[in-house]
Design brief:
This protein is mainly α and about 170 residues long. About 55% of the residues lie in helices and about 0% in strands. The termini are close together.
Amino acid sequence: MTTTTTATTPTAPDEPHAPEDTPRLAWTEYAPDVYKAMVRLDQASRKHLDPALLELVKIRASQINHCAFCLDMHSKDALAAGESVERIVQLSAWEESRHFYTEKEIAALELTEAVTVLTDGFVPDEVFAKAADHFDETELAHLVSAIAVINAWNRFGVTARLVPGHYTPGSLKH
């Protein structure tokens, strides 16, 4: 997911910034067939899902996985699509900020957390059932797929140590 846009490094008056890390692996260059397959999988998983809800899911999974590159990308995409700064900021504490989200979004966020943090146990039946109450089977299958895909992207981003701050919405043309 290499981009050629300018950095949007935050500025603070008279304070030097930490140096920007460099990616440790340009994995898209060395595994272009995997990258292209991931792009196709990502595109397929988006079908039947509300794009705004999808960005919330991608941001939340990326928060959990500490993927700064994906956080940068999906927060910018969400803002460009009209999402509010407040709802994006509150995602890291959505359980205490439930009133910012619809019941459907909450069900998607709960499922996102359960699928993302499988090491804590299985996806609880009540979490899956709540999601099934808000999504038809086709939507639910695509939601689970989208959650799996963002988790895979996060693993590439974190492992390759992709650098946030250079993404511009719409700059990745697949």
